[in-house]
Design goal:
Layout: E1 2-3, H1 18-21, E2 25-28, H2 38-54, H3 61-67, E3 70-71, E4 76-77, H4 82-85, H5 88-103, H6 109-119, H7 148-157, E5 161-165, H8 170-179, E6 200-201, H9 215-221
Parallel strand pairs: 1-2, 2-5, 5-6
Antiparallel strand pairs: 3-4
Helix pairs in contact: 5-6
């Protein structure tokens, strides 16, 4: 199996690189590999900052955006923004660190962090961390370059299986793939997709530890 980014694959259908032809499986990440992060993560970041401000955990929105390397005017992230470079938990910790810097330095960070995640209802039905599928639409979702469909089609024509490993839950992953019209590439058998799709490894799969644990890759390699 090979893990690769579409941004490094400028060749398409008839020009599929020979080394990829020897692969049995290609595993893609979703955000930043198949789909661009800027437009889709922008509304989420703005909503989350607003909720943290409403909870009194952040008092300077401009400083929070700067710390996260996000420009709300253009809805673009800097190349080192933790929102697009960190794991899901890593980016959540960056929010916690910024909230602590602005409103909580009278306490040790570990103590503040514990209270922060309680106030933001992490892991509950009232969590502020959930993605609003209304933000993920044809206006906010775009592919990572014009070759994505060509690459997936080339792999299919070469008899190479494809799969997705993502930290997002299955509901969000399914919605995203359908919206950008990639879902057909990841339906390798008739099933109640995506609930039973075995070519997806998602963050809410009960039997998988989250990235960077290799569980999702190992699961997909057993396809």
């Amino acid at each position: 199996a090979m893990c690769l980014s579409t941004t490094s694959m400028a060749t398409a259908a008839a020009r599929l690189r020979p080394q990829f032809r020897r692969a049995a499986l290609v595993i893609f990440d979703k955000d930043g590999t198949l789909t661009s992060c800027d437009k889709s993560f922008g509304p989420f970041t703005e909503r989350l900052i607003g909720k943290l401000h409403g909870l009194g955990l952040i008092n300077r929105l401009d400083q929070a955006y700067k710390a996260l390397e996000y420009d709300p005017a253009s809805r673009r992230f800097g190349k080192n923004s933790p929102i697009i470079r960190e794991t899901t938990m890593g980016s959540m910790l960056k929010f916690a660190e910024e909230a602590w810097r602005q409103t909580g330095q009278d306490r040790a960070f570990d103590e503040f962090k514990e209270d922060f995640f309680v106030k933001t209802a992490l892991g509950t039905e009232n969590s502020i961390w959930g993605v609003d599928l209304g933000d993920l639409n044809e206006d906010t979702l775009e592919l990572c370059g014009r070759h994505v469909h060509d690459v997936l089609q080339a792999l299919r024509q070469a008899g190479i299986k494809v799969a997705v490993s993502t930290s997002d839950d299955r509901r969000t992953t399914a919605h995203t793939l359908r919206t950008v019209k990639l879902d057909s590439f990841f339906m390798i058998r008739e099933c109640d997709w995506p609930a039973a799709a075995d070519d997806l490894a998602c963050g809410d799969d009960a039997d998988l530890r989250p990235k960077p644990h290799p569980d999702s890759i190992l699961k997909l390699c057993r396809l």
